[in-house]
Amino acid sequence: MKGKFLLALALILLLPAGLAWAQGGKKIVLKAGHVVDDNHPYHHGLQKMSDILSQKTDGRISIQIYHSSQLGNERDLIEGMGMGTVDMAGTSSAPASGFVPGFTVFDLPYIFTSREHAYKVMDGDVGRELLDQLAEKDVIGLGYFENGFREITNSVRPIVKPEDLRNIKIRVMESPAPIATFRALGANPTPMAWGEVFTAMQQKTIDAQENPLPVIFGQRVYEVQKYLSMTDHFYAPALLLISRHTLESFSEADQKVIREAAAEAVTYERLVSKQQADDYLQQLKEKGLEVNENVDKAAFIEATKPVYAEFEKEFGQLIKRIRETQ
Length: 326
Ligand code: EAX
What we know:
The chain is α/β, with parallel strands linked by helices. It has helices at 2-14, 16-25, 41-56, 74-83, 115-122, 125-135, 176-184, 197-202, 213-218, 244-247, 252-286, 297-304, 307-324; strands at residues 28-33, 61-66, 88-92, 139-149, 151-154, 169-172, 188-191, 208-211, 227-229, 235-243, 290-292. The radius of gyration is 22 Å and the shape is globular.
């Protein structure tokens, strides 16, 4: 009797419907990584996506989030999704420029004039075309999270005008545009993965770093830096990514649910990012950072204009399209 039961069960599982039934019943937990803390907007956005997915699939699909570079730095995460060893990630767009050069344009100084301008570009043709190029590396862009407007912290002096950056050793993201920008401002830029930056500031091998306030607050940058300058020099998009290997292991119906959950998570993450950026300025003052809000932004915009000449030949069309999107 038992043999007949096992044989029948084996036959059911061998049939596509049987496998679907088995998969349908089996809980699937996707591994997602990011490099910041578990209160950063990326974490909240991924958690929201997990909650929506779980609710839409009666708990069958959910996401386990690994924060603080547990699954590697942002470049490792993108490589891991391409190989299928990492299912998902939330990353800044900068490291993606190593896989799709066009992402470089998102890190050009003052290219985005507002959040609304950035969202129109990210959610429009330019943003979609760049994500489609990433898909050729087996990494599917589900949408754009927000990293946010980037501010400078340093341990040397108040920075309110470009000349104040002279000879400052500043860590930058691993992308050509931030490197060119801080060279143009007279600083000494050092590209470095985020997971190494806190120790570098602690050991004073770098004087400065630049990030949005949710990163500066959440990563306790105020413990090892003295000054915060509200330069808004870059608006950094972020990427909500999934491995093609992972996405295509699901049925068409499940893939649709995953994309719907991602779209809701993007809207939520951007709200959290804006709220945190608004809240943390006062909290960073209370943590003891000397905040320079009197930055001469016009001088920074003027001083960084020459950077565009370095990227005009390769990215002139993309730059033009971004500027025309208002
Ligand atoms: O993506 O590397 C950076 O400075 C990024 O802003 C940070 O890792 C969040």
